[in-house]
């Protein structure tokens, strides 16, 4: 089982890199046409091309695996593995020329996420983790920060429209430094100790699928806002572990 997991993880890293190459070809070009989905969120040829590229490679190498991606219908597999892919996480950044978007690939084995990768092509950062093998950023093992207090802790948001103003006021009063270095970029920052927490109030499974293994292998904690260890609960919080309960207490009162 370990071998087949690692073979998939190796493919996942390779595919995250090639996804980044496709994204970079489109990034900040006038050729990029932006459409809007029914929910009003933007989508581009790059989102679809990347997901199709990853789907093709997975079905060629592991035809029995399931596949859930943001842009096309789910493929139900017959093996114990399911790939969960967000071809471009942070499409709003991508279409506005902000280089903090990411390519996300996760591997679910039965009910556990056992591998995840966050690739940030324009920053030349690739972070990946496999269950039991640590979290790695460009080949160097990384850990969450050891800050224990909210005072001075960096707390990230992706967008503020769904934050209750009291939560912002109370985090600020507790001494937290609030920034919107969000989407997967914020989770990458937490995993490598550059920030202490990130909170997302509205998410889908593919937005957060790599985070349980990335954050936990870096020594941190990832839960829903109810404190459940679940990437598919419609929201999420990642932290260095020590500030987790303090942040949860404030965000849940809003
Ligand atoms: C977005 C990001 C973000 C979350 C949004 C998503 P997208 O994904 O994952 O963190 O808060 O709800 O829409 O659409 O840019 O892939
Ligand atoms: Ca996303
Ligand atoms: Ca996306």
TrEMBL record:
Pfam families: Inositol_P (PF00459). Keywords: Hydrolase, Magnesium, Metal-binding. SUPFAM superfamilies: Carbohydrate phosphatase (SSF56655). InterPro entries: Inositol_monoP_metal-BS, Inositol_monophosphatase-like. It comes from the Bacteria. Coiled coil: none annotated. PANTHER family: INOSITOL MONOPHOSPHATASE, INOSITOL-1-MONOPHOSPHATASE-RELATED. This is Inositol monophosphatase family protein. It comes from Rhodococcus sovatensis.
């Amino acid at each position: 089982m370990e071998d087949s997991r690692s073979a998939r993880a190796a493919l996942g890293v390779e595919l995250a890199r090639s996804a980044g190459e496709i994204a970079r070809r489109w990034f900040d070009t006038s050729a990029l046409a932006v459409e809007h989905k029914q929910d009003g969120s933007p989508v581009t040829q790059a989102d679809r091309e990347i997901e199709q590229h990853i789907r093709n490679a997975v079905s060629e190498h592991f035809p029995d695996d399931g596949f859930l991606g943001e842009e096309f219908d789910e493929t139900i597999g017959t093996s114990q593995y399911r790939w969960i892919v967000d071809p471009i996480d942070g499409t709003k950044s991508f279409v506005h020329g902000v280089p903090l978007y990411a390519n996300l690939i996760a591997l679910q084995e039965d009910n556990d996420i056992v591998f995840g990768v966050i690739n940030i092509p324009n920053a030349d950062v690739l972070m990946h983790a496999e269950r039991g093998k640590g979290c790695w950023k460009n080949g160097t093992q990384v850990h969450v920060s050891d800050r224990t207090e909210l005072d001075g802790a960096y707390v990230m948001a992706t967008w503020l429209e769904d934050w209750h103003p009291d939560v912002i006021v109370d985090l600020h009063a507790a001494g937290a430094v609030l920034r919107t270095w969000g989407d997967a970029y914020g989770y990458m920052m937490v995993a490598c100790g550059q920030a202490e927490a990130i909170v997302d109030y509205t998410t889908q499974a593919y937005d957060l699928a790599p985070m349980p293994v990335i954050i936990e292998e870096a020594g941190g904690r990832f839960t829903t806002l109810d404190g459940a260890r679940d990437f598919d609960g419609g929201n999420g919080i990642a932290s260095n572990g020590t500030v987790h309960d303090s942040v949860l207490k404030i965000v849940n009162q809003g």
